[in-house]
Amino acid sequence: MTAEKPRVALFVTCLVDLMRPEIGFSTLKLLEHADCEVIVPEGQTCCGQPAYNAGDRRTAHQLAVRVLAQIEGFDYVVIPSGSCAGMIKVHYLDLFVNDPEMKRRMGDLIPKLFELTDFLANVVKVETIPGKIDGQVTYHDSCSGLRELGISAQPRALLEKIPGLKLVEMKNCQSCCGFGGAFSLKYGNVSAAIVDDKVNNIHATGAQAVVLGDLGCMLNIEGRLRRLGDERTQVLHIAQVLAGDVASGSQ
């Protein structure tokens, strides 16, 4: 008798859905490769992080109630974004501080909710990775995933399973890329200076690609590279790399 597959809810995130849906499909491929039954709950929307960061607790609370109702009841919830996973896992309890029933429901959910690489490395403990890249990459640690969820060793351990891939660490790999959600809009000059440092550190490695786990950082770094005339360096979400969904021209 074989064990039942774990039922995993995939919370796609609004940025992935609107800007890079291919990351969602790569995540789906990885979870199915790990022998999970994947369900994408319908009617997904924003996790509420932009409203929460802006101090709009009313809107953030409304979104949190909606999200919780959509993703509870599964064996696990997996999110291909450190910032969205951090928002739900860490900050929803603050939004529900005056609501004992919602706090109880969040308490039941928190042990089941994981950022993608943490789930693959530490929960299902995948032994093989479908991705194939022959060359050097460097890894950028996104702030929320690193500081709120402790995501650092997990993506590196998974990348090491890819034959032909060489990971070259950049200087200050754990420093911010300058995106910071609304920060990049409110303080454009400061944000640009921060991302310029990140771009210089990426270039110094000689890597063909920078890999990361948060689409906000991905868009910010890629945008700066292109505006500076760099059309060569690839900026890849780790789900794409692990799933083998990288264009042949960048391998």
Q: How do the strands and helices of this protein lay out in sequence?
A:
Layout: E1 7-10, H1 14-19, H2 21-33, E2 37-39, H3 49-53, H4 57-71, E3 76-79, H5 82-95, H6 100-109, E4 113-115, H7 116-123, E5 135-139, H8 143-149, H9 153-159, E6 165-167, H10 183-186, H11 188-205, E7 209-212, H12 215-227, E8 234-237, H13 238-243
Parallel strand pairs: 1-2, 1-3, 3-4, 5-6, 5-7, 7-8
Helix pairs in contact: 5-8, 7-9, 11-12
> Main sheet, how many strands, which sense, barrel?
4 strands, parallel
The amount of helix comes to: 40-55%
Radius of gyration in whole Å, from Cα? 18 Å
- Topology as a string of helices (H) and strands (E): EHHEHHEHHEHEHHEHHEHEH
> What is the approximate shape?
globular
Structure, described:
This protein is α/β, with parallel strands linked by helices and 251 residues long. Helices cover 50% and strands 12% of the residues. Strands 2-1-3-4 form a four-stranded parallel beta sheet, sandwiched between helices. The termini are far apart.
Summarize this entry quickly:
The chain has 251 residues and is an alpha/beta fold.
What are the main properties of this structure?
251 residues; alpha/beta; Rossmann fold; 2 domains; four-stranded parallel β-sheet
